[in-house]
Amino acid sequence: xxxxxxxxxxxxxxxxxxxxxxxxxxxxxxxxxxxxxxxxxxxxxxxxxxxxxxxxxxxxxxxxxxxxxxxxxxxxxxxxxxxxxxxxxxxxxxxxxxxxxxxxxxxxxxxxxxxxxxxxxxxxxxxxxxxxxxxxxxxxxxxxxxxxxxxxxxxxxxxxxxxxxxxxxxxxxxxxxxxxxxxxxxxxxxxxxxxxxxxxxxxxxxxxxxxxxxxxxxxxxxxxxxxxxxxxxxxxxxxxxxxxxxxxxxxxxxxxxxxxxxxxxxxxxxxxxxxxxxxxxxxxxxxxxxxxxxxxxxxxxxxxxxxxxxxxxxxxxxxxxxxxxxxxxxxxxxxxxxxxxxxxxxxxxxxxxxxxxxxxxxxxxxxxxxxxxxxxxxxxxxxxxxxxxxxxxxxxxxxxxxxxxxxxxxxxxxxxxxxxxxxxxxxxxxxxxxxxxxxxxxxxxxxxxxxxxxxxxxxxxxxxxxxxxxxxxxxxxxxxxxxxxxxxxxxxxxxxxxxxxxxxxxxxxxxxxxxxxxxxxxxxxxxxxxxxxxxxxxxxxxxxxxxxxxxxxxxxxxxxxxxxxxxxxxxxxxxxxxxxxxxxxxxxxxxxxxxxxxxxxxxxxxxxxxxxxxxxxxxxxxxxxxxxxxxxxxxxxxxxxxxxxxxxxxxxxxxxxxxxxxxxxxxxxxxxxxxxxxxxxxxxxxxxxxxxxxxxxxxxxxxxxxxxxxxxxxxxxxxxxxxxxxxxxxxxxxxxxxxxxxxxxxxxxxxxxxxxxxxxxxxxxxxxxxxxxxxxxxxxxxxxxxxxxxxxxxxxxxxxxxxxxxxxxxxxxxxxxxxxxxxxxxxxxxxxxxxxxxxxxxxxxxxxxxxxxxxxxxxxxxxxxxxxxxxxxxxxxxxxxxxxxxxxxxxxxxxxxxxxxxxxxxxxxxxxxxxxxxxxxxxxxxxxxxxxxxxxxxxxxxxxxxxxxxxxxxxxxxxxxxxxxxxxxxxxxxxxxxxxxxxxxxxxxxxxxxxxxxxxxxxxxxxxxxxxxxxxxxxxxxxxxxxxxxxxxxxxxxxxxxxxxxxxxxxxxxxxxxxxxxxxxxxxxxxxxxxxxxxxxxxxxxxxxxxxxxxxxxxxxxxxxxxxxxxxxxxxxxxxxxxxxxxxxxxxxxxxxxxxxxxxxxxxxxxxxxxxxxxxxxxxxxxxxxxxxxxxxxxxxxxxxxxxxxxxxxxxxxxxxxxxxxxxxxxxxxxxxxxxxxxxxxxxxxxxxxxxxxxxxxxxxxxxxxxxxxxxxxxxxxxxxxxxxxxxxxxxxxxxxxxxxxxxxxx
Length: 1291
Prior knowledge:
The relative contact order is 0.05. Helices cover 30% and strands 26% of the residues. The chain is an alpha+beta fold. Strand 8, helix 10 (207-221) and strand 9 (226-231) form a beta-alpha-beta unit.
């Protein structure tokens, strides 16, 4: 904290609270000094401030002190009056306007940074003109009748040596008509110090007359009171002063003309004159005045007795009527004398005496305030007397560096009292506030000083603007700095400046506020600052700076739609006024999403569509591993080959081909709520032609002829027009908040190094937006097989352009986007090579062989679909061979493409499962004698299919308990579609082993002809195993093809069935077998079915525009299900005639047992000779052990070997007396049976009497060699089937 005397307030008090000298001069005196571009007072002013006058002074006591600093204020008598308020306002406004004009050139510079502001000293933070403004504001209260420091201390009478009768002129000058009202009205003592000065113009007057006049003056007015000033010693009047002392006092005139007739000796003489006048006349006079007043006041007012007397006297004044005119206190009153004593002591720097005087007079004013009730002006005048004393007391406390608390109390009390006066006290409160704020700033209380500035803002907008700005600088000087308050008060100040048409100052304050808000998240106030400062720059004609600031508000999506329209409208209006296009780097309209940046280009990998280029590289690499050849040095990829062939400095570069586009996908977003049109969007690129080391890579010469030096081309234009590359241009419109992915392309036409620098676009034809890519890494969709070594963002957009190569183009004709599950389609793959260089060795790999199967040859292109899939006359069951090895399809070796020739190849498509399916095709081809860098290329094709649900089928197969080679098949069909109808056409078993037949008429299977949406259906069929038993040769019987297919429709009886043993149905079925259960492929005892259907009706034809002609549904690895692993039958006679009188009856039987599981089974037969209930004789009704099936449509069919046993009733009671029979063969035997095999066991019974016998008194005990799964048993017992034998007595 600086000393009070050296603070800004101390300096201000030294200048403003200092003795006033009244000047009276003749017109000829003024004419003498006009030659220097100055008035008389202006000439003397620079020499009235004494920094080291060193005058001894003794005031109240006997102790002397030396006065170091001293200032005189010189005023013409005509100027010693209270200023006119309106004139003062105009002068203040003019001062502010001039300051704004001086700062105009600085407005073009960049706004100050907040770090720089904080690092600057206090003197450099606030504008320098604030001090001049504050002084002028304080001077609006000059020469009030109650403040003695504004009353003239002395009068300087000045007469020219050229005046006629100079002595009389001196007398006439001090005429009452020319004196100020302060002297005439009695507010001050007219008996003041007079000093007489004779001015001699060395250019005009003669020294003889001047000497004579000076002698007369001294004889008349006294020798010490007269003085001579010789001036204008320069005859030519063209002297230029190095340090012109008048430049800071008179800025409206060129400094070269100020004092042009005054020599150095003249200036020294003026300086000595004023030094002598102050030290020998003014200071002694004031010193003497203070001593006299102090003695007088001490005798009448000081001491307890005098204080009581004064109090009693003031009480008695209540009865005396007061005058309502004139001042309350005249210069001769005791109160005025005390005030003069205090003010004189203050000006002579005796602050102790000043304080004691102010305390004394303050008591009198308080008493008067309590006992007197004046009206109107008298009240205000009285309060001003009192408050002014409080104000001076506070200043005295401050300047004497005494009680800080007392100083602030006095200033607060004075300020509050002024504010209570309303408008009449506003000027006084403003002066008090300015002094108070400076006092707080001197003590580093900047926050409190800011609040004082805010309190004195008042209603005048211009005055408020200056005070608010001064308050803002106080906030930035606090520790720590209060930046948000600093910026907020600057904005308030700028708005007030603009309301007063002080646009330069409004811009200046807003520029400073930008430093606060540009790095904050306060978006709305930031937009307010940038938008208005842009408007104001346009007002003053700085349109380019206006555009730069308005650009900051374009990304204002958080604002209302109306606000955004205002921003955009004013922005384009300002741009239009400039009459030129503005290129803006980093334009935020539209906003570019750099994370969406994708670079798509073709090197050895080419793409058939945009969708193919967006597929992850790992998917393509997994497909291409089997078709891309490896080098002799072991398995390596194309990147390793490239690294061996390219020069070292190009090894990490991306490679593209001349004539082929490099595509860049970039997302543009409209941050506004209003629609925005974006035009002429293109890339910014550079292409450097090849250097010599790169030419050596290819043995053939480059197609372009280059000079010895390389050159760089940069597309600063709008689009192409450069021979080295061609750019695409895109126009689009973004609605409010819309995002749009835009594809931009650059096509190099010659070899070299291509760099994608950025992107450019236009708004409204006048704003060119530019965005550079250097700082953002790009996602290149051709990432190599192995990771590169730390690619820089620039390298990701840098390409090595090699010469033109053949490029294969492919398309898939007739491919629908939406299909039904099982839909079989015939497609055509068309390949073209427009280059004159041939390609050969074509190979293709498909990601989903389950969905796609290539045709066998080009001749299939002429076939009719689907008739080509139906059976022909005399067709043999032979599977066609294909050209595929594993999942790679090799085109014929003799195929070569070049020029205008195209290749069309049949492709079979089957939608295997519902859902969204992604199909990937990779076509490999080789090139000859074209490039040593690239020997082969691949064409990548990608398609997305939407597969809708159709029919879902499932099969249940159960064995016949009596007919071992026959099985019942239950087929369950559910239409999973939500709206489509289907017709079932054909059911086929796959292979030659299983024959199939109907169990019910076709018309009864589906009477409605179509399976409705959501409908379920169950139907039954019989299949027969044509494989012979183990006892015969193990081979399959030859079945005619008609026995493996069943027609499921009645209309079109002549329509042929579909051939399932040849491609493509056979190929797709093999894929289905591997997909539905690879582990069961080794089990030959399963049944595969193929159901053929077609779409009968679609409720939404637009979903599937090309209706399917055939749908195939494949069910593979269907097992034969049973509750136990055995099925058997007991064969023998039904009726026997025997003569029991001769012998018992022996009957031979045969049991056939089949192992229906895939495990080795061991079977033992356990017979029982006694039945608890014997069968009664009854007529035979045929073979009762035959198998009969009763379908259950509500649940899955389960057939067991004891079906008939559960249906047998109790035999008649008449049979209970029949004699028993016995099993006369082996009572128990164990037989091993191989999986899915049959064996025969001979049996025999002995019957002792005629009757009907139930031969079910046996059990089959079975045991498996190992567990099939956790849920099946390892052993078990089966009860014998009922078998009735009728034995009759022969005649």
